[in-house]
Amino acid sequence: MAKKLDAERIEQARQKGQTTDRREEEKRRIQETIAKNRSGERKGHVIMPERKMYAYQEAPKVRVAAYCRVSTAEEAQVGSFEMQVQHFKAVIENNPTYELVKIYTDEGISGTSLNKRKGFQNMIDDAMNGKIDLILTKSISRFGRNIVDILTTLRSLSDLEPPVAVSFESEGIFSSDGKNKLIISILSALAELESQQKSIAIKEGIRYRMQEGLYKFPVKNLIGYYRDYSGMVKIEPAEAEIVRYIFESFLEGASPQEIAASLTQQNIGSPMGMEAWRQATIRSILCNEKYCGDVLYQKTYSKDYLSHKTVKNKDVLPQWFWENNHPAIIKRENWAKAQELLASVKWSKRATTLQAMKRQFTVAKVKSGVLRGYFLMDMNWTSDEREQFINIIHNINELGNFQAEKE
């Protein structure tokens, strides 16, 4: 009987031999093929594509859009913003192959989130709908400061048919060039990091001014106050009467809901310019320490530099309280009584008829824009009421000038 074979050893040897043979055979095949190509024995032809991948690379007329953005609406940024707009208008108009679609803009909007960038959103929507071939922008940081948003948007544009390219002028790169993908990713990350560092620096500056009592709290929607040309907080007489009416009615027993209903019925606009007053608005006014001349800084804070979402400061960050920071509309003792009532009284659903405000005090002062400082007067006033109001304003201005001369 024949001797039994060592199957494992034999198979391993066969597989090793086959592997070695295949590798050598593949090398010989490659060498022979290249030799035939160079000797002319094999003939080959290159078929060039008739069309380019991106429309801007070959179209006789390229539909071009530009995107311009600045992060703040401050006067220092106005020049930068307008220069961006005019620059890209000139670039597009002076190129005979370019056809202007639109200059999309976001002025005073942060690039860390897409939520409030309406101009950017409209531009991407138009690109998705096939209205744009090429987008021009100053730099990656103008396009956005969120690496996820930037790369996601560029990927969506490149997936279109035909794809839409983005030209970043300062960096001198096109998103259509595959070699630039890594560079764009790195620069996007740097733009986001710069935004984060800037946010930290701004917050530290604000908190330093709060600590020293120098921070200028906003008065845009703070009824009863405005800032003059020098930035000082001043009482607005017409709106101050509304504030006093709210506190007086509350201390006399009216609930916030009843006060809101009364002001709405009298056709007096809310701090946000709405026709109807809300109970929450009345409560917010009643508990606002600014009406007795004090200010509490850092009631809220921005939790995330990307979303800019504001949350209440519940023993997370320090707060600074400054007394007699600005002129008071409500006496301190009356404000304190209002706080006691807010904390203790449970309001019943009763109907209380409140005395209407005097009509001559329902005007408002324009706080911003070309007409800043002017008063809006009621056309239904009598001549006596108009004269009375003008005399009040005249007396207030004379008192202010007298105090300024004394200082």
A few lines on this structure:
The chain is an alpha/beta fold and 407 residues long. Helix content is 44%, strand content 13%.
- From the N-terminal CA to the C-terminal CA, the straight-line distance is 127 Å
Which percent range describes the beta-strand content?
A: 5-15%
CATH 4th-level superfamily of the domain at 55-194: Resolvase, N-terminal catalytic domain
| Mean residue pLDDT | 83
The helix/strand order is HEHEHEHHEEHEEHHHEEEEHEEH
> How are the strands ordered across the major sheet?
2-1-3-4-5
Number of discrete helical segments: 11
* Class from secondary-structure proportions: alpha/beta
Rounded to an integer in angstroms, the radius of gyration calculated over CA atoms is 35 Å
Return the CATH architecture of the domain at 55-194.
3-Layer(aba) Sandwich
Shape: elongated
Written account of the structure:
With 407 residues, the protein is an alpha/beta fold. Among the domains are: 55-194, Resolvase, N-terminal catalytic domain (Rossmann fold), CATH 3.40.50.1390; 225-293 and 328-398, Hect, E3 ligase catalytic domain fold. It is 44% helix and 13% strand. The protein has helices spanning 7-39, 75-93, 118-128, 140-143, 147-158, 181-211, 237-251, 256-265, 279-286, 332-344, 383-406; strands at 62-70, 98-107, 134-137, 165-168, 173-174, 225-227, 233-235, 295-297, 300-302, 310-312, 320-322, 364-365, 375-376. Strands 2-1-3-4-5 form a 5-stranded mixed β-sheet, sandwiched between helices. A hairpin with a 7-residue loop joins strand 9 and strand 10 (310-312). Helix 8 packs across helix 9 (279-286). The longest helix is centred in the N-terminal third of the chain and has 33 residues, at 7-39. The chain is elongated, with a radius of gyration of 35 Å. The model has no long low-confidence stretch (mean pLDDT 83).
